[in-house]
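Recap quiz, item 2
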Amino acid sequence: MTDTATEDLIETAPEALPLDQWHRSRGARMVEFAGYHMPIQYDGIMAEHLWTREHAGLFDVSHMGQLIFTGEGVAEALETLLPADIKGLGEGRQRYSLLLAENGGILDDLMVTRLAAASPFDSEGGYYMVVNGATKWDDIAHLREHLDDDITLSHLYEQALLALQGPEAVTALARLAPGVEALTFMTAGAFTIAGIDCWVSRSGYTGEDGFEISVPAEDAEKLADALCAEPEVKPIGLGARDSLRLEAGLPLYGHDLDEETTPVAADLGFALSKRRREEGGFPGHDRIVLERENGPILKRVMLVVEGRQPVREGAAVLDAEGSEVGRVTSGGHSPSLGKAIAMAYVPAASAAPGTSVTLNQRGKIFTGIVTPMPLVPHRYHRKGA
Amino acid sequence: MAIIYFSKDHEWISVDGTTATVGITDYAQSQLGDIVFADVPSAGTKVEKGKEAAVVESVKAASDVYAPVSGEVTEGNAALTEDPALVNTAPEGEGWFFKLTLSNPSELEGLMDEAAYKAFVDTL
């Protein structure tokens, strides 16, 4: 009997993140997610959702993986695994990208930023990447396997990550960190907040204006306290994070994206830069380009579901004969619209806005209307806006 | 004079003779969170003790509501269609799910009274 076999028999208990006690002391209901104890809600998902759309919500996303890449030729190396224009990324510029498998399937979706000369990570010329919590260990193994030995991958497991999201996020954060208001959507820089050296990007996962803040784990409570002392800010749980991102049309890895979905089917064509499409050199290039030219078989769309009952992940999309031709990958109640909404993969011929699709959930039939994404308009603070 | 009983599945049933009203408890609604949809049985539906009788959906998930006793439904609460949040605001009042005629009143013997239910919830 080997050690490995023994380890497989041991159930790994969820781990505590740096703000674990902080959440509990604020009355959060904790659940297990991605191997960690995480807050699902404080006051209630509906109230937290609406608060974020009107004011500012603080989300603990410390379960996500924060990585730094450095070394000679690091941009070229990353371009062998991602379809983004990494070489053309200016200092302090952030891109949404995808970790792709050889067949063009999606291994993870992520944010990558070229670090500025000044950053708390002291890695000038390097790249900072945030990957999903549930996939981070697989991502790290994949990246280590495929990147040259000249490239150093550091996992910042002693950094917490907080997201401050909502139309009043900038007002609250600029009071603590003057100058942060100068960042525009998808740019980042080093800021001192409440005396703590942080790395701040203007980005998020709610469709609202907002910021994501990387902070040393030992200072996370101090930062969370400082932010929640601002009248605009309340802590928000994972439940509202999910309903907010769904309204904003943002896919969730492991649900709306997986190794079977391609960037084209997932309607993430914007993540394929023109230069990279033309030059290739990333996994799955041939298939992705062909699919882009000929159109995908299935396409990710948003649906507004008739009636009030939520249609959730796993419901089938049916054709006129009643055969399953697609699948709901996320679904639920939209607090902002007061309607049932869903994200689904439907046949390309049914993907145009206004098309009615038939759904089957546990034997009950529903009608969904394909509706342009996002259902709640994005309010990002774009450059020049 | 109605007597209220409680089930381990967190339903309450208020019984007056052979007619009764069924809903979910305050503890159940607080665990479910914001209720966004309720599907209640219509009059004439036969329900069986311990079997699914209604569906309640929160923002997070769908849950079944079980019949605490067997019987025939005489009325589903139509108000829940328009205002499912009544289950959150008045779970043991206006947020009731259905009324029924009991087919086997002896099934009530296996249910808890308020004190026993409170003690049961305290163990959860």
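The radius of gyration of chain A is 21 Å.
The domain at 297-385 of chain A is CATH 2.40.30.110 (Elongation Factor Tu (Ef-tu); domain 3).
End of item.
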